[in-house]
Amino acid sequence: MWQQHLISGFLLVTLCVGCVGPRPADMPETDNPVLFSINPNKVRGGDPANTFHGYPVLGQVTVDGDDKQALFEALAKGLADKSKSPAKCFIPRHGLRFTDG
Question: How are beta strands 34-38 and 94-97 bridged, if at all?
Protein backbone atom coordinates (compact mmCIF):
# COMPACT_ATOMS: atom_id res chain seq x y z
CA MET A 1 0.00 0.00 0.00
CA TRP A 2 2.81 2.41 0.78
CA GLN A 3 4.17 1.78 -2.72
CA GLN A 4 0.94 3.17 -4.20
CA HIS A 5 1.26 6.28 -2.07
CA LEU A 6 4.89 6.70 -3.06
CA ILE A 7 4.05 6.32 -6.75
CA SER A 8 1.07 8.70 -6.47
CA GLY A 9 3.21 11.27 -4.68
CA PHE A 10 5.97 10.96 -7.28
CA LEU A 11 3.49 11.38 -10.12
CA LEU A 12 1.89 14.41 -8.47
CA VAL A 13 5.28 16.08 -7.97
CA THR A 14 6.29 15.20 -11.52
CA LEU A 15 3.08 16.70 -12.89
CA CYS A 16 3.41 19.78 -10.71
CA VAL A 17 7.00 20.41 -11.74
CA GLY A 18 5.99 20.12 -15.39
CA CYS A 19 3.10 22.53 -14.90
CA VAL A 20 4.90 25.24 -12.99
CA GLY A 21 8.24 25.14 -14.72
CA PRO A 22 9.09 26.60 -18.11
CA ARG A 23 6.93 24.98 -20.77
CA PRO A 24 8.64 23.76 -23.96
CA ALA A 25 7.22 25.31 -27.13
CA ASP A 26 5.96 21.92 -28.42
CA MET A 27 4.21 20.99 -25.15
CA PRO A 28 0.42 21.53 -25.34
CA GLU A 29 -1.36 23.67 -22.76
CA THR A 30 -3.24 21.60 -20.18
CA ASP A 31 -6.97 21.98 -19.68
CA ASN A 32 -8.18 23.58 -16.48
CA PRO A 33 -7.26 21.42 -13.47
CA VAL A 34 -9.94 19.96 -11.21
CA LEU A 35 -9.48 20.31 -7.44
CA PHE A 36 -11.03 17.49 -5.42
CA SER A 37 -11.97 17.40 -1.75
CA ILE A 38 -11.59 13.76 -0.74
CA ASN A 39 -12.32 11.51 2.21
CA PRO A 40 -8.93 10.18 3.43
CA ASN A 41 -10.37 6.71 4.02
CA LYS A 42 -9.71 4.70 0.87
CA VAL A 43 -12.47 2.36 -0.31
CA ARG A 44 -12.14 -0.84 -2.30
CA GLY A 45 -14.36 -1.35 -5.31
CA GLY A 46 -15.86 2.13 -5.16
CA ASP A 47 -17.55 3.71 -8.15
CA PRO A 48 -14.69 5.19 -10.26
CA ALA A 49 -16.90 8.16 -11.16
CA ASN A 50 -17.16 9.10 -7.47
CA THR A 51 -13.59 8.36 -6.37
CA PHE A 52 -10.15 9.89 -6.88
CA HIS A 53 -7.50 7.13 -6.88
CA GLY A 54 -9.75 5.08 -4.58
CA TYR A 55 -10.64 7.93 -2.20
CA PRO A 56 -14.32 9.00 -2.07
CA VAL A 57 -14.89 12.46 -3.59
CA LEU A 58 -16.67 14.90 -1.28
CA GLY A 59 -16.70 17.78 -3.77
CA GLN A 60 -14.87 19.16 -6.77
CA VAL A 61 -14.30 22.43 -8.59
CA THR A 62 -12.68 23.33 -11.91
CA VAL A 63 -9.88 25.87 -11.45
CA ASP A 64 -9.67 28.50 -14.20
CA GLY A 65 -8.68 32.09 -14.90
CA ASP A 66 -6.76 33.92 -12.19
CA ASP A 67 -7.33 31.03 -9.78
CA LYS A 68 -5.48 28.68 -12.17
CA GLN A 69 -2.46 31.00 -12.25
CA ALA A 70 -2.56 31.35 -8.45
CA LEU A 71 -2.70 27.55 -8.11
CA PHE A 72 0.39 27.08 -10.29
CA GLU A 73 2.23 29.77 -8.33
CA ALA A 74 1.27 28.09 -5.02
CA LEU A 75 2.48 24.71 -6.34
CA ALA A 76 5.80 26.26 -7.38
CA LYS A 77 6.19 27.89 -3.95
CA GLY A 78 5.30 24.62 -2.19
CA LEU A 79 7.91 22.71 -4.19
CA ALA A 80 10.55 25.34 -3.46
CA ASP A 81 9.73 25.48 0.28
CA LYS A 82 9.21 21.76 0.89
CA SER A 83 10.79 20.05 3.85
CA LYS A 84 13.97 18.08 3.30
CA SER A 85 12.62 15.13 5.31
CA PRO A 86 9.68 13.11 3.99
CA ALA A 87 6.34 12.98 5.78
CA LYS A 88 5.81 9.96 8.02
CA CYS A 89 2.17 9.58 7.03
CA PHE A 90 -0.09 10.00 4.02
CA ILE A 91 -3.60 11.22 4.83
CA PRO A 92 -4.79 13.00 1.68
CA ARG A 93 -7.57 15.58 1.91
CA HIS A 94 -7.33 17.08 -1.57
CA GLY A 95 -6.27 15.99 -5.04
CA LEU A 96 -5.60 17.69 -8.36
CA ARG A 97 -6.34 16.25 -11.78
CA PHE A 98 -4.61 17.72 -14.82
CA THR A 99 -5.79 16.69 -18.31
CA ASP A 100 -4.79 17.51 -21.82
CA GLY A 101 -7.43 17.45 -24.50
Answer: antiparallel
